[in-house]
Design goal:
Shape: globular
CATH architecture of the largest domain: Orthogonal Bundle
CATH class of the largest domain: Mainly Alpha
Distance between the termini: 55 Å
Largest sheet: none
Order of helices and strands: HHHHHHHHHHHHH
Number of domains: 2
Number of helices: 13
Number of strands: 0
CATH superfamily of the largest domain: MetI-like
Helix content: over 70%
């Protein structure tokens, strides 16, 4: 029998069977232990979350601790070097350039996605074909990062001046602007970062639109109508009513985009491989690990990236708790 069929059968039937067996087993143990209802209520939640805690420990906690350990050793993970790898990350021009590029991603991708999503959500809310508009804008979010990188690599394709432009962007540029020369969008350090960030915005603005549109639908229309009856124009309605009420949703969407911007890798790797001054922290980590085989530096860069993401995640969690407390 084909091993793939056996594996598929184990996944389809074995996992649910193991889950049911675990549930029955825990209830049996609770019955054998003869605990009273109060103690049983205290013990049961721990038994239920035990598998999840075990998986998190194996696949998240242990790798994180081991990565911290590796970051304190040399390239072969044999000699202890202390904080030398972290000193390299914050003093060498290459990782510093990657950190700078990540900062650009965080600022401009977040502003572009959240701002663009808010604009589309508000404008689409006023037309009958709102669903179609949101569906069209959301389509790029369903595309993988690699596929998006390949698509836009062709879109940005460059041919020398005078040659027929096969890239859509340069074809439009040279057709609509008389005398304009084509631009090497992704092979020019002056434009490459902005071209890649635009691809990230193009991919995620639909996601932001859908979330912000849902938040917009949650605003009581009577508040908006009352403001308009009192003489407020659309700008005043947006600034004084819509925007303040949407702030919790904007906050969550914004912090989510910050996390995605910090983790940017696929688009950069596919379109430029970090060349032309487009390196980001994740691509620098990949290069140190798989190209330079310097496991210590790669681990240190990974920890720096983790340290940058954790505060944003904690802010998001704190925001969720505040919202739940209000409810």
């Amino acid at each position: 029998m084909d091993d793939r069929i056996v594996t598929a059968a184990l996944v389809v039937f074995g996992v649910p069977a193991a889950l049911v067996g675990y549930i029955v087993g825990t209830e049996f143990l609770l019955g054998v232990a003869r605990l009273n209802e109060r103690r049983r209520g205290r013990v049961r939640p721990w038994l239920w979350v035990a598998p999840a805690v075990a998986l998190l420990t194996i696949f998240l906690v242990y790798p994180t601790i081991d990565t911290i350990r590796l970051s304190l050793f040399d390239r072969t993970s044999e000699a202890f070097v202390g904080l030398e790898n972290y000193v390299y990350v914050f003093t060498n021009s290459t990782p510093l350039s990657a950190l700078r590029n990540n900062a650009l991603w965080v600022v401009f991708m977040t502003l572009g996605t959240v701002g663009g999503g808010l604009l589309v959500a508000i404008l689409a809310d006023r037309v009958r074909y709102e669903t179609a508009i949101k569906a069209i804008v959301f389509i790029p979010a369903a595309i993988s990062f690699v596929a998006a990188g390949v698509i836009w690599k062709f879109m940005y394709d460059y041919r020398p001046p005078g040659a027929s432009q096969t890239g859509t962007v340069n074809a439009l540029l040279t057709s609509l602007v008389p005398g304009a020369d084509p631009v090497a969008w992704v092979s020019n350090s002056a434009t490459a970062n902005w071209a890649l960030i635009f691809v990230g915005i193009w991919m995620w603005v639909g996601f932001c639109t859908v979330i912000l549109s849902a938040g917009l639908k949650g605003i009581n229309p009577e508040l908006l109508e009352a403001a308009r009856v009192d003489g407020a124009n659309e700008w005043h309605v947006f600034r004084n009513i819509i925007f303040p009420l949407l702030l919790p949703t904007i906050y969550v969407v914004g912090t989510t985009m910050v996390i995605f911007a910090l983790k940017a890798f696929d688009i950069v790797y596919v379109m430029t491989a970090g060349n032309f001054d487009t390196d980001v922290v994740a691509s620098q980590m990949y290069r140190e690990f798989y190209v330079n085989h310097n496991f210590g530096r790669a681990a240190a860069i990974a920890i720096v990236l983790l340290a940058a993401i954790i505060p944003v995640m904690l802010l998001n969690i704190n925001r969720f708790r505040q919202q739940e407390a209000v409810r």
